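Sat 14:20. Reprocessing the chain from the morning session after the first attempt stalled halfway. Input below, unchanged.
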Amino acid sequence: MCKLFINADSELWVSRTHSLRIDGMVTSVRMENAFWQVLSELAERDGMNLPQMITRLYHESIDAGHDLGNFTSFLRVCALRYLELQLSGDVPRDTRVPIASLDADRILAGKPGEPAAPEVVSKARH
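Finished this time. Tokens:
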């Protein structure tokens, strides 16, 4: 089991700092490259660069009344949640499908919908 993780590309767990400006304030976020890669893919799906998407997540989270005392942890959980939703079939693996085009209310309610991607359907039938 451990070999799958130990022999992974060590660049994935190297931490990198990104500085960005949110509402005029410069902030730095330090995370492992694996998280940056997932967040970059997520941003690209909706035609944003990484700082734009992070700023948007920040604003929408504040608007929803969340306390973002540990913003870096929030971003890590966003990355993991994105991967989890892909595995469940709620978010298509096809990165050409924007996240904004998905029915978030249906996904959050756990209601079944149209299959997200053909590979999800074929796996479910076997």
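The chain has one domain: 9-109.
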